[in-house]
Amino acid sequence: MDKQKNILIIGAGLCGSLLALRLGQRGYNVRLVEARPDLRKTDINSGRSINLAFSDRGIKAMRLVGVENKVKPLCIPMNGRMIHNLDGTTLLAPYSGRSDEYINSISRGQLTALLLDEAEALDNVTIEFDKKCKEVDFETKRAIFRDHITNRETEINAHVIFGTDGAGSALRKSYFLSKRFLFSYSQNYLSHGYKELSILPTENGEFKTYKNALHIWPRGSFMLIALPNLDGSFTVTLFLSFDEGQYNFNNLTNERIVKEFFKKEFPDALELMPNLVDDFFKNPTAPLGTVKCYPWHYKGNTLLLGDAAHAIVPFYGQGMNASFEDVVEFDKFLDDHNGDWEATFTAFEKSRKKDTDAIADLALDNFLEMRDHVANPIFQEKRKLETLLETQFPNEYSSKYSMVTFNEDMGYHEAMTRGRAQDKAILNMIADHTLNINKDISKDELKLILDRILKETETILEEDRLANTMNY
Fold first, then answer.
1. What is d(CA 272, CA 293) in angstroms, rounded to the nearest whole number?
2. Is residue 384 over pLDDT 90?
3. Superfamily (CATH) of domain 6-74+108-186+289-368
């Protein structure tokens, strides 16, 4: 491809910063423009998650741009879910039976700042802040920005424009409003929203509870989670319905009822959160939604990536990782079509769309799992078995969660399809009482169970394939 091409990237969040860095490394002239102030100089409270779950697909992206070793110090490993029951008891459920498979808690701001620094260090990358994109003419490859400081509008022309400007993407909005081509778009909200709270560190700067876990308080129709931060605090997120149930965001309107709610449902968390009321009424309540659209590109002129193309709910911890993987996958197509951007965009989109649809569906599935199923005895029996299998047969078995989270070379769609079939096989055996898992089970007995699961999984997959071929 012609490296003299001028590339405009709208949105300097995680995806846009990584894309700018990678295209800059490839030699393109990149102009990265962001609506918000520079987070490296200004504390930005956007209501978005302070920290995120960072796993193998994201790490693969950091490896691609050569910053993996710089990112590692920003991470806190989380080896499993610490489940907090209503009676105050806890259970640590490992994410995998393989000791080298775990997710990480990482600061959104620190990671974005690192990527911005790396991109800005390149002579062929420029970054501008406080310029909000108002519209994009994707036929003439021209974008209009309003400067928040001067209130003036400016026009930027480019050879190619990328929209990495999140769920409220200006480029995607321009696609939708123009009605100049067939563009499909859906935005679906959950009835639940979320509010960020915090567990502050001790006076000595230490963690008040176990550091190396993602903490979950599952309560059926709602839940609380907590992720650790490097300063000894935890970012706590309450996921709750806006208007259903005895307690909801619409009726938690005063200090008394907020404390009553937490004392009843999360008493052990409440003990760690003397700052609860201040956080609750200071921090915004935000919605949770899924965005799907098609196509992502217009000819060879423009392309949507990251949340702008496929925003998902946060319950698989894959939003950032999926956006990073977009850049990794797109990078593979850059050398394949002799400078033809339209052919590149078309091939990338065709390859990638099924995987982003799959992780959107999996994230919705995991909402039910996290708020309810993790406390279910049948689910816990299934996870116990899967952990045993991954421990004893690490090269032969991976749970659906492991395939999605730790197998960065398997597409989300394949992980979803195989993982769901595998789950069905195991749950059928548990329901039929044909599994006998006890602490004295031998490896040979466990191998027989593994063989049955794998055989039944293939049968289910074949039945699904047959059913799909008949649905014409």
1. 42
2. no
3. FAD/NAD(P)-binding domain (3.50.50.60)
